[in-house]
Design goal:
By secondary structure, this protein is an alpha+beta fold. The chain folds into 3 domains: about 80 residues, no CATH class; about 110 residues; about 260 residues, Methylamine Dehydrogenase, Chain H, CATH 2.130.10. Helix content is about 30%, strand content about 30%. The strands form 6 sheets. A 7-stranded antiparallel sheet has the order 7-8-9-10-11-12-13. Helix 4 packs antiparallel against helix 5. It is elongated, with a radius of gyration of 50 Å. The termini are far apart. The relative contact order is 0.08. It is found in: Secreted.
């Protein structure tokens, strides 16, 4: 009875758990169930494969429960144990799942509370960062000076936010894009504050020192000023020579890279000068080919703005130009004819050669070119009085020779011989009949170190520092009306303002 009722109850429980009806196949009742040898007979039935069968209500199949044991205790009570198959209902797995879910829930709640705390901190410091950004922008744009204390306060706030970011990064696990973004912004803010602190307009201490220095100089000037002090002479008028020569030069102004590109390091550029229309004239750019010798293409621009923007240009091609000693005067371009000692005059309106003339005894084809610049044995120049040529001869043993030319016929009008060796000079130009020669001091500095005055025949040394953007100066052209030098510097177009010695009238 014990075993039968137990199995009946067990099958009923399984049926209710699975939602199926269960049918019990009973075991015939025999007196052997109550006999002392029941256990052995029951166990032998278990070993022999005895089973109870259950059938689902749909009649789809039969499931066997053969993994059971039975015994009788001292009182004669039947004790049965049945081990259900695992695929019937995984109770132990469900219990483990519940336990794991409980642990994860606790961890989630703990991390969620941390995130809420960090979010509140981030919001607080985000407001501080916005406020700090506004303050820095005001300091950057405003003309009001700030003291060092203002910058120190800002630095303290930035350092405080940096400490918060370190805390957030240490406590955060997983994705931290917001924290990383805040860290980048704070780092940028630190660099901006340091940059602002170095700016003169916001460095009140430096400005105050400058103001004090200027006030002292002004007082000294007022104290030394006499009532009958002579009035300083005005600057020389453009295109005139009412001055005592070049005494200084401005810093270079970079116009731009030549229109053919960085590879075209050699060439020349300038502005056409005509005494009849001194304030007007085309801008011209003549880069040599990459061999540094052949002048094949040049461009003309009506205005400097057109040159800056590379628009409205006129481009021409020639097949006979050599070197960077080119000059433009009265709408004509003058150059050394390729592979000869001749000078060619080209009409810029028609791009046709109007005159060619041999320069007597001139060395050519790299015999006596400038230092670090090839194929410029014959260097044309323009000043207030007209067209000149700078060159060397075998008779001069390489020293510089200056000749004044007739710009129409290219015949030599007069010649002067100097004592300066041409290959030791980096370049040269002529102002008011005075030759000025340069030499290289280093990769960023030239020096106007020598002059020869054709008006007096005197020559001497100078010490005028000339800054440059690149290492080599390929050509220098002077414009009398603008009183500027147009320098071709390793492919870059530079110009300089000349400063003259003022002489009283």
């Amino acid at each position: 009875m014990c075993l039968g009722f137990f199995l009946l109850a067990l099958l009923s429980l399984l049926g209710s758990a699975t939602g199926d009806s269960v049918t019990l196949t009973p075991v015939p009742r025999t007196t052997a169930l109550l006999q002392p040898d029941f256990t052995s007979s029951f166990l032998s039935g278990s070993r022999s494969g005895s089973s109870f069968n259950t059938r689902s209500g749909s009649g789809s199949g039969t499931q066997s429960f053969s993994n059971f044991t039975g015994s009788k205790d001292d009182r004669g009570t039947c004790v049965c144990s049945v081990a259900l198959p695992d695929n019937t209902f995984p109770v132990e797995r469900v219990e483990r799942l519940e336990f794991t879910a409980h642990i994860l829930s606790e961890k989630y709640q703990k991390e969620l509370s941390k995130v809420k705390e960090y979010v509140q901190l981030i919001r607080i410091y985000e407001k501080k960062l916005v406020n700090l950004t506004v303050r820095v922008e005001i300091m950057e744009k405003d003309s009001i000076s700030y003291t060092e204390l203002d910058f120190e306060l800002i630095k303290l706030e930035v350092k405080e936010m940096e400490k918060l970011i370190i805390r957030l990064k240490d406590g955060f696990s997983g994705s931290s894009e917001i924290v990383d973004q805040l860290e980048v912004e704070i780092r940028n803010m630190t660099l901006l504050v340091e940059k602002l602190e170095t700016l003169d307009k916001n460095n009140v201490l430096a400005i105050r020192r400058d103001i004090v220095t200027l006030k002292n100089k002004l007082k000294e000037c007022e104290a030394s000023k006499s009532e009958n002090a002579p009035v300083a002479p005005p600057a020389p008028a453009p295109g005139t020579c009412a001055h005592g020569g070049v005494v200084n030069i401005s810093k270079p102004f970079v116009v731009r890279l030549n229109w053919r590109g960085f590879s075209y390091k050699y060439g020349a550029w300038g502005r056409d000068y005509s005494p009849e229309n001194p304030d007007k004239g085309l801008y011209w750019v003549a880069p040599l080919n990459t061999d540094g010798r052949v002048l094949e293409y040049y461009r003309l621009y009506n205005t400097l703005d057109d040159l800056l923007l590379y628009k409205y240009s006129q481009e021409y091609r020639i097949l006979y130009g050599q070197g960077g000693g080119t000059a433009v005067y009265k709408n004509s371009m003058y150059m050394n004819w390729y592979n000869t000692g001749n000078i060619a005059k080209v009409n810029l309106t028609t791009n046709k050669v109007s005159v060619t003339q041999n320069l007597p005894y001139a060395a050519y084809n790299n015999r006596f070119s400038y230092a670090n610049v090839g194929w410029q044995d014959i260097d044309l120049a323009v000043d207030e009085s007209g067209l000149w040529v700078i060159y060397s001869t075998e008779a001069s043993t390489g020293n510089m020779v200056i000749s004044k030319l007739n710009d129409t016929t290219l015949l030599v009008l007069n010649t002067w011989h100097t004592k300066q060796y041409k290959p030791s000079v980096s370049n040269a130009f002529i102002v008011c009949g005075v030759l000025y020669a340069t030499r290289t001091l280093n990769t960023r500095t030239e020096e106007i170190f020598y002059y020869y005055d054709t008006n007096t025949g005197k020559e001497g040394r100078l010490n005028i520092i000339m800054q440059k953007m690149q290492e080599n100066v390929q050509s220098i052209n002077y414009h009398p009306f603008d009183q500027k030098l147009f320098v071709y510097n390793d492919g870059y177009l530079l110009n300089y303002d000349l400063i003259f010695k003022q002489e009283p009238h």
